Hints:
This protein has 528 residues and is of the alpha+beta class.
Amino acid sequence: MSQNVLASSAGVAAQAGRRRTFAVISHPDAGKSTMTEALALHARVIGQAGAVHGKGDRRGVVSDWMAMEQERGISVTSAALQFSYQDVVINLLDTPGHADFSEDTYRVLTAVDSAVMLLDAAKGLEPQTLKLFEVCRQRSIPVITFINKWDRPGHDALALMDEIEERIGLKPTPLTWPVGIAGHFRGVIDRRTEVFTRMQRSPGGADLAIEEEMSPEAAAELYGADWETANEELQLLAMTGADFDDKEFLAARSTPVLFGAAVANLGVRQLLNVLLELAPPPSARPTVSGTDKPVDSAFSGFVFKIQANMNRTHRDQVAFVRVCSGRFERGMLVTHGDTGRPFTTKYAQQIFGQGRDTIDEAFPGDVIGLVNATALGIGDTLYVSEPVKYPALPSFPPEHFAVVSTSDTAAFKRFRRGIEQLDGEGVVQVLRSDQRGDQSPVLAAVGPMQFEVATHRLEAEFGVKTQLNHLPYEVAARTDEAGREILRTESNVEVMTRVRDGALLALFPHRWRMRSVAGRHPDLRLDD
Length: 528
Ligand code: G4P
């Protein structure tokens, strides 16, 4: 991505203040890729207007990324799309995941300052949105809601507000309100300024929407019943106190809501404006010592994703680092917090799909890709001057388990190396089972597609054909040595060691089975 987005000698605090780092959380098909393209389109247009000298055609960049996803059949790249909009640098972090989730998807949320929850107007809250929202809730990440696909039939706007409040407990505070039901989208009323903006898709729908501010009288005349209904709904909203409150939003208790249709760019500009105006910039980050690290202190960051072999022509490993404080400068010598060793950052890049640019400097909120950073692991901290350690990234409880093995004895060394690599990257969790021995590790995943990624990569990158034997467990809980002894007396329960951290995990076929076992052994330690 373009260097000039970053080039500035302004102070670190000012640079952090002009950054917005967020991710889109949504269910597959709600329109995340379309929204990404729509946001990129704004960047491209700015580029053409001269405010940002975009490098190449940004739609091309996004398409490359998607082509790569298609080629591998899954979303494998997790990087940040960076662009400048009205002097603000937007970092949009990808939350990979199509029909399924992996831990990667969740981990991206440890590196953002806010999230955009994208809902399909016809479907409302869907399962994967709820799962991702749960991570946002646990981390108190402020969430902006965008009701997408308002250009085609869907739920009633007020019913969607009720659904949000009832199912996830966030108070919806619409900032814009649609005139026209889903499928008859006329435009939106800005609830704070009361200005109505008529919106129409550009011919073909591929360009920015055509927007026109219109007086209430003209809108009433043009849209009759639609206008009246929207105004009645606005009165209802005012009565329920659904007004935007900065503190409530930042405390992740309320969510500003916007309406639009990403496919036609309707409402996308409004979303960008809300991100600029209301989404929080990077701020002081808690460290394990209990103090917060200010954004304008010396450089620090943490690794939130590792990806190997992204580029087939150069077999390499990239560690994605979210900058938390200070100014990052390519080539700077940083300390790897986990080993205390120096680490040189000569090969720092900005990576989005296959597009790579060398990056010279970065500021809090930005994401840098460190190439060939094989010493780095997920969650590791990097810093200069004073030592700092950010809390370990959460590990999500796996729900799918399978024994992986290879019948190709000549390939066993490669098999082992491959499993270690995938564990290090966090593609799957690797468990050791005393019963099965080292030759047959157990893979544990949050979503079953992680298995496909693992076996595909073992074959493509390590040349090992593997077999998977799925195990009949769905729930894992942490236990201890005493628990392991107790559980030996129970059938259909196994205790395994997670290689990554040595944790003992007790595996149960169902939650109710876990409860019944726990009920019989009051001293048994089981932590979800
Ligand atoms: P995802 O990344 O969240 O999985 O969703 P994606 O953007 O791929 O969108 C899923 C489908 O929904 C696509 O249609 C896309 O065009 C459509 N879509 C996205 N936003 C809107 C919107 O605002 N209005 C309408 N009407 N449709 C929208 P598709 O038929 O699967 O693909 P395509 O052939 O249209 O690209």
